[in-house]
Design brief:
single chain, about 220 residues, mainly alpha, Hypothetical protein af1432, 12 helices, globular, HD domain-containing protein
C-alpha cells in the first residue's frame, strides 16, 4: 500500500479548474489555489500571533495545504449548485467523506492513516487555525474574482464571488487578521480601477467597519 495514488492525486488537482463553466481571462486550478491559500494562511497566522494568539503552526500548514485535496474525488462543483439546498450540501459532504475514508483505508499505508485522516478531514473548524483557513480561502477567492474584475470581465458571477467573499470575511471581523485586511489591504485594492468598483466599495464599507473607518479618515 504505497503513496503512489496520493502523489498522483496532486497532478489531478492541477487539472481541476476553479469556477468551472464561466469565461475567465486567467484560469485557476485547485492545486494552485491550495498553494496560495497556504501562503495567505501563513501571513494571517503571523498577524494573529503578533496580536497575542497562540498558533499551532503544524495545524495551519496541514489545514491549508490539504483543505481541497478531496476535490480530486468530486471536482470543484459550482458554489451556487453546491449550496443550492442544505440537503444537497449534506449529501455532497457525505459522498466526499465516504470516498476520502475509503481512499485512506485503501491507498495510505497503515502507519500514516491517522495523520491523513486528520489532514484530509474538514479543516474549517472553530480553532484559530481553522478560522485562519476559512479567512485565507475567502481571500484567495476574492483575489481570483478581483483579477477578472480588473480585466473588466463582464461575467456577473465575479461580482457575486467578490461580494460573497466580503460577506464571509465580515463574519470574522473581530479577528486581528481580518482587521489588518480591512485597514491595510482592501484600501490598496480599491485604489485600483476595475469594473463595478463603486458597488463593491460601498459593500465593503457596509460589511467591514474597520475598512469604513480607515477610508473615511481625512487625508493628513
Amino acid at each position: 500500500m504505497p503513496m503512489h495514488e496520493y502523489f498522483m492525486g496532486m497532478t489531478q488537482l492541477e487539472l481541476i479548474n476553479r469556477a468551472p463553466g464561466f469565461f475567465k481571462y486567467q484560469p485557476h486550478n485547485v492545486a494552485a489555489h491550495s498553494w496560495k491559500v497556504t501562503q495567505i494562511a501563513q501571513f494571517l497566522a503571523d498577524v494573529e500571533e503578533q496580536n497575542g494568539a497562540k498558533i499551532n503552526w503544524q495545524s495551519v500548514y496541514e489545514k491549508a495545504l490539504n483543505h481541497d485535496y478531496t476535490e480530486r474525488f468530486i471536482g470543484d462543483i459550482k458554489t451556487p449548485v453546491k449550496y443550492a439546498t442544505s440537503t444537497l450540501r449534506s449529501m455532497l459532504a457525505d459522498v466526499e467523506d465516504s470516498m476520502t475514508e475509503n481512499f485512506i483505508k485503501t491507498e495510505i499505508p497503515t502507519q500514516f492513516q491517522a495523520a491523513y485522516t486528520r489532514r484530509l478531514g474538514e479543516g474549517k473548524d472553530d480553532s484559530i487555525e481553522g478560522q485562519i483557513l476559512s479567512i485565507a480561502d475567502k481571500i484567495d477567492l476574492m483575489y481570483e474574482a478581483y483579477g477578472e474584475l480588473e480585466k473588466f470581465n463582464p461575467e456577473p458571477v465575479y461580482v457575486s464571488i467578490f461580494q460573497s467573499s466580503l460577506e464571509a470575511l465580515s463574519e470574522y471581523q473581530s479577528m486581528a487578521s481580518v482587521k489588518y485586511l480591512a485597514t491595510e489591504i482592501l484600501p490598496d485594492i480599491f485604489h485600483e480601477t476595475f469594473i463595478h468598483k463603486a458597488l463593491l466599495y460601498d459593500l465593503a464599507k457596509s460589511l467591514l467597519p474597520d475598512f469604513a473607518a480607515k477610508v473615511n479618515k481625512p487625508t493628513q
